[in-house]
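Service request form, structural biology core

Requester: graduate student, group of Dr. S.
Request type: structure prediction, single chain
Budget code: on file
Notes: please return the result as structure tokens.

Sequence provided:
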Amino acid sequence: MNQSTEMRYIGATLYPLLGVEKNLYSFRVLKVMEKIPKDNNQPIRLQRWADKLWREELFCPVYPTKCFDDPAFLIPNGNSPEAGKRFEIKDVPDKVYFIEVTEETLDVKIEDAIGKERELVCRMLERPFTDKFKSLDDKFWRSNWTLFFRQIPENEGVNQDIVNAYRGFKFRIVYLEGDGFYFAADIRTKYVGKKSLADYTDNQKNEILQEHIDLTVNDEKRAFFLRDNGTVKIPCRYVGTTEKTIGQYTVKDLGKTVYEYYCQKYSQLKISPNEEAVFVKDRLEKDKFIAVPISRLFPIFTTEYEGLRKCSIRPQLSPDERVRIISSFIDELSGVEYENKPVEIKQQHLKRERTVFIPPNLEYGSGELHKPFFTSNIPQKTSKNFDYQVKKWASSKLSALYRNKSYSKFPFPDTILLYPDTLKRGDRETFLNDLKTEIKQHTELDCSIVLQRSYSTGKKERSGSSLLQKLKEIKSETKNNALIIVVLWNGLLDSVYREIKDTVKPHFSQCVTQKVVHNIINSQNSQKAISQLQNLALAVFTEVGGQPWVLSNLNHDLHIGIDLLYGNIGYHFFYGTGGRLVDRQFGESISKYRMKEAIKKPELQKRLTESIKTIIIEQGHQINNMIIHRDGRWWPSESSALQETIKNLKEENILPENFSCAVVEIRKNHLPVRLFTAVEEKGREFSQNPIFGTYLILDKKRVILSTTGRPKQWDDRGKTANNLLLEIVETIGDLKIQNIAEDAYCLSHLNWNAPNIEIALPVTIRWTDEALRANFHSPFEDEEENDEEREDEED
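Core staff response, request fulfilled:
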């Protein structure tokens, strides 16, 4: 096709917001006059009061804030009553609180604002849209403040579906630097069982609802139910039975039985006073349980549930279909006002010149490079040929490995095979020969099998007692560090895998299921068998420390990935040319036997100081700049540790005076924004999945990055690529967000074990998470302080 007849642009589910073009936003401060309890429920309590003020008194957005010494609220100054006016709030425990309008204002100049100030304006502008949706309660029900679902499921009347599929609309307001406010939107789908908890038999509960009702699991880890009270639908978790009927159980605060309360508030529902009353906990409530009718609880399922496989409503949407459904929701949002002035969403998604990173050069054995373009004549990023060349490069990583061999070269450790007694000798020998040949083709290294031993199988061996005993024997007999390959009998419990890893340490280990072994040696599905053998060979090689390929270059000298799991801290340090030298470290974040999300200052400072000194002094690497990738929040204690570390290392002349550093929070769940490619071709326009490497800079601190995506292939499958939000939360010196995002993208191309699949996360985060999961369990999961809601919407 002639390139002049087609053009490719970046598209995003961002829609211009009209009527909010002013630059200065002023907010009036309302303060709570009495002291309120400083407990875990304070944020919930303040949000409840803000909602009450919004609905019953002020009829304008009300935003709780901690910007002042005492609890306070902010409202648009244009909607403010006169200073001195007081509002009365009654709250438990039977106390009256007064909230007074002060003369104090907070002014935000949007162009100059950063971080929380700009976020405040965006949150204020969201509230009128939330209000609009809530006024349409005959059409929509609220899951949270910016997520609303249609009352009528998309598959209404499809009797063969065993779930109701509700389409939802997630929105936020986003400010694009130099371009103004945009309405960000995306589609969610929630799958809710058609049968209530009361309608499941005991066997069905055990088979289907185990994740919903298992009381041995921390309640914050249980799957959600939807409490369906007609137009009011509330996600909640089951926490136990009252052992009474709703006609017997009295709610103390109301002085009524559950049955009386429901008859009064939800008179349209048909409930019996003889049905069971059960306790549930709403998503935001930490300690408060409420009793509800069991017939009003409907299980929410994720796409892992077998019953969804034949559902008529797919969880995924193509970019074109996604944009069309978003448009239908936006049509409902007319008549919205902010400070008594109309606000309108322009029905035209963002479309601008495409911004996409060129894939990195990958270095293999003998310094051979795998380049996305063979000449310096790079196709225009707006062209179809650019996408074609990039996809061709991505799909030929493995062929480049066969041709150039692996980057790493070292003697392969002695290898031991442990296999189930159900694996025939001929199959075992074929499998080992195929695996050794594949490793040789990748690496030119010889894999020597020094020992083979079988373990018993059968009904009494599902927990792997024979397997684990054999592993202990092998470990005691093996002096030098070895690689132990374990073929997993198909009847083993999933939990055995973890025990194998723990038992084998400190030896290398790689597990493969007996089913995969049979796939490899049987050629009925030759392409699948080849792919599984290739991936296994790569997994074995990387397990013993091999690097099939490395990056030829990065923009920064040192990258550090930091993550926490079960009170343990994982660190990965990437340095040297292209970050090809990797060091892994662990630490603890436990205080008074409770796991913490924040890393204490002494722990982080010690780890950073020791590792940076080792890299610079002992190994002789020059470090002029550093990027920290944080999976989760970057806490004040961590910021203090970083600042102190850099200050001290500069004073010791280990780091240069012009040293620069940035901390980037990498978020998988973030703004409801999808990126895609807007294609203009032969007089028509349509949307495709983004080519991986597509990015959109929101401002100096935030960028949306798509590290996955296959135009055409994913479009045909009806799916849209997800993306990451990279937010710079701390900087020292001058670093460009574009360079930071490019390195994060490049670091996602080290997915060695499945090279034909793009991975979403850079390996700074991915490998740190994998290392934590491989090495640590939760010793007291009930104590884990993680309030994040488990994702209960698909797509």
